[in-house]
Write a structure and sequence with these properties.
Blueprint lengths: L3 H33 L2 H22 L2 H11 L5 H29 L3 H29 L3 H25 L5 H34 L10 H36 L2 H33 L5 H37 L6 H27 L6 H23 L1 H25 L5 H24 L3 H20 L2 H20 L1
Helix pairs in contact: 1-6, 1-9, 2-4, 2-5, 3-5, 4-8, 5-6, 5-7, 6-7, 8-9, 8-12, 8-13, 9-10, 9-11, 9-13, 10-11, 10-14, 10-15, 10-16, 11-13, 12-13, 14-15
Length: 492
């Protein structure tokens, strides 16, 4: 039987493998799509996905975070929260159909476009239902299977690209989306199979505990509705934060400036995706109750290492991503170089915010996050309107950094007020950040060659993690894990 550290290490490694595999397959799908489809069809495909993405956002309402919490507490009750969640979202489904009908009457689009958008929205519905079952898997320590489902989804898209677009040379967007819908239905069936099989195992082990925690649909709706509305509001303002500045840069400046700004944002999103894999994996562990004290310390250690890894990765991206982009694209996106450097500075604070976010929602305090997000979004919009006309994309970057800092300050205050993290630990985190930012600034000022800068940054990160970031308990846990690993190797 594997020890706790080995299980954590294996779960994290598999999470990164499956997620990156799925993302890689998705990127290859779009490569084939852009290569083989006419420009008009690519635009139509993008339009359908854009409309469906907004529809998917409105039906989501934070379902992942809410149901993971629910299933962590009530693992035996699979179906009641699914029915309750669908009832909560039924008015949104109906509203979506009404809007589609009104749009059809008012604009009189072709039947092909209506059908394409309808199919794309059905894909979003299948994604929502899949999240029900993935939430159960994550909430009950079956994260490897939940991550496998995501990887299979990316693989399915790639198979559609190779078979339908490349080999069969199907050019119709409606047919391509139809095949993608079949893929999502197949993935949903896999998710249902995994979940029902794992649930039977839990019921077999618990025996008479099968009905423990059984909630009526009405009471479950009450449990899920309020946090769903809060997460929905958080998602709405996050959507504004992530894309409204794109629209402003495009309309106020130009699409070429937007290309540079979006390139910088893409680097930021990649870094935050890598951090998000780790925080999403850790979220169910933060919800765990009745675990031994040693498990709690190891989860805290893991969160500290996420912060260390994330800040170091962001600063390395700030130093070396501009050169990498220049190597790939030449001077095509040269205006993005300084934007990448600046936004990666902000990413160091965003890493801490992401850890604090999951810590806060694990204790059901998400309602305190909403005022922070509203204030940050309004402030960012004001700064964007003020600075973008004068400073173009850099004005949007300044607005983005301001947003990140306001969110970071707000989440830190919540963590302190609700005693979610000791003040001493927060001081360690921000001391580590200050050290890393100082080294980063010195490397930029001195202009040390790439290899030398990389060695210095990684060396300082390891030293500062050990002597500044980690608490004494976490250091002792590192020693225990090391001793356990050595002992296991000798046994083998």
């Amino acid at each position: 039987m594997k020890s706790e550290p080995e299980r954590i290490k294996r779960t994290v490694a598999i999470a990164y493998f499956y997620t990156l595999t799925g993302q890689g397959c998705n990127m290859l799908f779009y490569f084939f799509l852009y290569k083989y489809l006419p420009v008009e069809d690519v635009g139509l495909f993008s339009l359908a996905l854009a409309v469906a993405t907004f529809f998917g956002f409105f039906i989501d309402l934070g379902i992942y975070q809410i149901l993971i919490r629910f299933y962590a507490e009530y693992p035996e009750d699979l179906n009641t929260p699914i029915v309750a969640s669908l009832i909560i979202r039924l008015p949104i489904f109906m509203l979506g159909l009404v809007i589609l009908l009104i749009w059809n009457i008012a604009s009189n689009p072709s039947k092909e476009i209506v059908l394409i958008i309808f199919i794309a929205c059905l894909i979003q519905v299948s994604l929502l239902v899949k999240k029900f079952y993935q939430s159960w898997l994550r909430g009950n320590s079956r994260q490897n299977k939940a991550n496998l489902i995501d990887a299979l989804e990316g693989l399915g898209w790639l198979i559609v690209a190779i078979v339908v677009i490349v080999i069969m040379q199907v050019a119709g967007v409606g047919l391509i989306l139809s095949y993608l819908l079949l893929v999502h239905i197949a993935i949903l069936l896999v998710a249902i199979y995994f979940t029902t099989r794992e649930r039977r195992k839990i019921l077999y082990i618990k025996g008479s505990a099968q009905e423990r925690g059984k909630e009526t649909i009405r009471s479950t709706i009450r449990i899920l509705l309020k946090p769903g509305l809060i997460f929905g509001a958080l998602g709405f303002f996050t959507l504004l934060q992530n894309r409204l500045d794109w629209v402003l840069v495009s309309q106020i400046v130009s699409n070429s400036e937007l290309a540079n700004y979006s390139m910088a944002n893409k680097v930021y999103e990649i870094v935050m995706l890598l951090i998000g894999i780790a925080t999403t994996t850790a979220y169910p562990w933060l919800l765990s109750k009745g675990r031994p004290e040693g498990f709690r310390i190891r989860v805290e250690l893991f969160m500290s290492l996420i912060i260390s890894f994330g800040i170091t990765l962001a600063l390395l991206a700030s130093l070396y991503a501009p050169g990498f982009l220049s190597g790939l694209f030449g001077d095509k996106y040269k205006e993005a170089n300084i934007m990448v450097t600046m936004i990666m500075f902000g990413a160091t604070f965003a890493v801490i915010s992401q850890v604090l976010f999951y810590l806060i929602i694990s204790q059901y305090f998400e309602k305190y996050i909403l005022p922070v997000i509203i204030l940050a979004s309004a402030s960012q919009l004001a700064i964007d309107l003020l600075l973008i006309p004068s400073f173009s994309g850099m004005g949007a970057i300044i607005g983005m950094i301001y947003l990140i800092l306001i969110v970071n300050i707000g989440l830190t205050r919540i963590a302190i007020a609700k005693t979610l993290m000791p003040l001493k630990k927060l001081k360690r985190i921000y001391s580590f950040l200050c050290i890393m930012l100082t080294i980063w600034a010195l490397l930029i000022y001195i202009g040390i060659p790439a290899i030398g800068g990389l060695v210095i940054m990684l060396s300082i990160s390891i030293i500062a993690t050990n002597y500044v970031l980690l608490s004494n308990e976490e250091k002792e846990t590192v020693k225990e894990i090391y001793i356990e690993a050595i002992s296991n190797r000798r046994r083998k």
